[in-house]
Structure formats: C-alpha cells, structure tokens
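Hi C.,

You asked whether I'd gotten around to modeling the 294-residue construct. I have! Everything is below, sequence then structure, no commentary in between.
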Amino acid sequence: MNRRAWFLFLTVSVLWGMPYLLIKVAIEDLSPMAVVFGRLAIAALVLLPIAAARGLLTALRGRLPVVAALSLVHIVGPFLLITYGEVHISSSLTGLLIAIEPAVIALLMLRAEPLTPLRTAGLGLGFVGVAVLVGADLSGDRLGLLGAGMVLLATLGYGIATVMVQRRLGDVPPVALTAGTTAISSLVLLPFAVFALPSGDVRAVSWAALAGLGVLCTAAALLAFYGLIAAAGPSRAALVTYVNPVVAVLLGVVLLHEPIGLGTVAGFALIASGCWLSTRPARVPSETPVAATV
C-alpha cells in the first residue's frame, strides 16, 4: 500500500475502534434502533451539505439502485445487527468477531485475488493476534450466542458491501457515496425510529456518545473507508478489523488507566505482523501471463 492508503488505513482503524465503546454507552439510555437511526441521521446531515456544495451528488445519477442496495448491505443490516448484538455480548467480543471480515472477503474475492500461502499465513496470524488481545470468551447474558451470531452475520454484510464498492462504485467520489448511503439508510429506518424514541431522561454522556457515533464513527469513517477501498482494494481495506481491538485497548489504557499485560503486547505484535503479511502483493513470475479477471 502507498502512503495515502496507509494514512486512510490508520484513520479508519482508529475511528472504527471507537464505536463499540460508544454503542455500549449510548444503549444505556437509548434503544438500539434509536442509536442506529441517530448516528445515521447525524452523518447524513453532516455529509449531504458537503456533497451538495461540491457538486458531487450528480455522481449518484443512474446509480441509485446499487447505492440503495449498498445502504442495506453495508449500513442498515450490519449496524442493526451489531447494536442489537452488543445488548447481549461485550464490546471486546464484538471486536473479535468482526475481525473475521478479511477472511470473508478473501473467500468472496478468490477469483480476483487468489490466496497465496503468505496471505493465508498473514490472515491466520492476525486472527490469532486478535484472539490473544481480547480473549475468545462468550461473556454476556443468556442470549450471548444469539448476540454473537448477529455480529457474525454483520461481517458477511460488510464483506459483500466491500466487494460491491470496488466492483460497482469505485468511481463514485467517497463524499457522494457516503452521503447517499447514510441518507437512504436514515429514510429506511425513520418509520421504525419513530416508535423507538426514548421515554425517560437521557444523560448527556449518551447524547455525546451518539454524536460521536454519527460524526466520527460513521460520517468520517465511511469517507475514509471508501477511499481506502479505492486506494488499496477490498481485501487490504478489510484488514482494519485486525487493528480495531488494539485501538480499543489503547483507549482503555489512556482514558480508564487499564494496565497493559504481556498478552496485550503479544496480541499487538501478532496483529501488526499479520497485517503486514496480508498486504504483501503476490509475486507473479515474469514468464507467466496474468489472467484477466471479471
């Protein structure tokens, strides 16, 4: 990956390392449906004026069906599944389960990007690192298995959507694409959100968490992620899911003064090694022609 791709990679890793904590805070006072709709509506209100001022919304003409499909697969479905799933499982376990996304995308992209032994080893090493870092436990309530299943299903949506962006929408400016998907998603969820409004008092910290989810973890993160897909491809873009748990641990150390153990250091080293190996381009012998892919 080039320098710009690495910058986008680190940006997305940080922004998508934050939402699991913010979701846990927000659902203390708000329903999962209200949290998902709120973060999407905030993101749309931020992005639509920017896209309109730059004259970028015209790029969506003739693309609304595929943009609508992307909204459902990449945003509405996964956001609801993860938020409802976090009602039953811990945020750290959510991050661990989401980390299987690169494997899902690798399977979806087998024709275009065959798995080499090096890439396979990198993916495996990264997953082991995530397991070491956050611990493969199913802590939560009696519906923990259901919550874990919801999160795993969300990773399938993320994987399909990542491939869709590269194959069908790679030429659409990220600002226009993100504005379109968040706006469509908000409209889809609006009828349901009306019946999910809070009935009691909502603490300021919950509103702040919702604002952070909308502006940072949705609007800014999706902008950076779509740009990363265009710059590095879907398989490498999905590797941010290996770094998200690291960000969560660092936030805990800085803000909550949580200790760093040997397991944390070992997990970080494994994840970094796995990301490096998985982003290595395949070596193609000069005498062998490269087959065209569709």
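If it helps when you're writing up: The chain has 13 helices and no strands.

Thanks,
B.
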